[in-house]
Amino acid sequence: VFLRLKKRKMNLVIDRGNSSFKIALFDKKRLVENFQLKEIDSSFLQKIITEYAPESGIISAVKQVDSDISGFLHENIPSFYELNNQLPLPVKIAYETPETLGVDRIAAAVGATAEKKNSNLLIIDIGTAITIDFVSAEGIYKGGNISPGPQLRLKALHDYTDKLPYVPEKGDIPDFGYDTETAIRSGVVQGITRELDSYIEEYQKKQAVFAFLTGGYSFYFESKLKNSIFADENLVLKGLNKILYFQQQK
Predict the structure, then answer these.
(1) Are 242 and 111 in contact (CB under 8 A)?
(2) Residue 197 annotated as catalytic
(3) N or C terminus: which one in the chain shows less Cβ crowding within 10 Å?
(4) How far apart are CA 60 and CA 194, in angstroms?
(5) Of 105, 140, 129, nearest to 212 (Cα)?
(6) Rounded distance, CA 27 to CA 209, Å?
């Protein structure tokens, strides 16, 4: 179902994650529509282009995007970019191997700086993997850490042991598990919660820092963290839109 709007100069933003595509349309800085799908094809994109007529677009991809889709976007959107380490950015990257830095982490960093200017930022993205990144108040991306996300941890306990079952992340989470299922779920969820709280506390001991939470599990973990944190599941999309505007300004 597509939202009918008067034709404006729209931006099409696509985030190709490990498990799904997130697609958003922006009217300047305002997000007007978004979708999340396991896969996309040219017929779906054609519907979006017909409905919204985007004049600019950008894609970030942590997994290979089909060449037909990439070609279609370049052919049908007048000004289309692919986020990589060569594209000019509104933040400075102080990372020894920028060519290996995930584009989703770059976009989240830009999105956070756009939302909270002139602040030290801790950006936590919980999806297939958990990334924890730091951006200084001067707008310099300093780096970060990567660890397995909830599904990876639960799956690894099952795949790399003989007897432990696979347990879904949703369900009872007691302080101490009263059976194998709750022991695994509590161990994984509480382990992640305490890991993230520890990061926030350690950074706040050194300097004032504003913490963002994003990714598919952001709202699931927001209420579990004891530290104050701002959850925004669209942070990467907002960052991509900011990067797109930065290209237009240049």
Answers:
(1) yes
(2) no
(3) N
(4) 30
(5) 105
(6) 30
11, 59, 92, 137, 238 from 56: Cα distances, Å: 5, 11, 23, 29, 14
Residue type, 90: P
Residue in 24, 14, 102 with CA at minimum distance from that of residue 66: 14
Phi, psi of 141 (to 5 degrees): -75, 120
| pLDDT per position as a tens digit, 55-83 | 999 999 998 888 999 999 999 999 999 99
Q: Using CA atoms, how far apart are residues 59 and 65, in angstroms rounded to an integer?
A: 10
Token pair, residue 237, equals 């999309």
Predicted confidence (pLDDT) at residue 5 exceeds the cutoff of 70: no
Q: Please say whether the beta carbons of 70 and 80 come within 8 A.
A: no
pTM of the complete model beyond 0.85: yes
Which 8-state DSSP code applies to residue 39?
-
Alpha-carbon distance 13 to 244, whole Å?
9
Determine which one of 15, 104, 133, 232 is catalytic. Answer: 104
**Reduced to 3 DSSP states, what percent helix, strand and coil does the chain have, rounded to the nearest 5?**
40, 25, 35
Contact of 214 with 122, CB cutoff 8 Å: no
Chain CA centroid to CA 181, Å: 29
Q: Determine the distance from the C-alpha atom of residue 203 to the mean position of all C-alpha atoms in its chain, rounded to a whole number.
A: 21
Rounded distance between C-alpha atoms, residue 172 and residue 67, angstroms: 43
The two tokens of residue 219 are 């709202």
> To which residue do tokens 């979006």 refer?
48
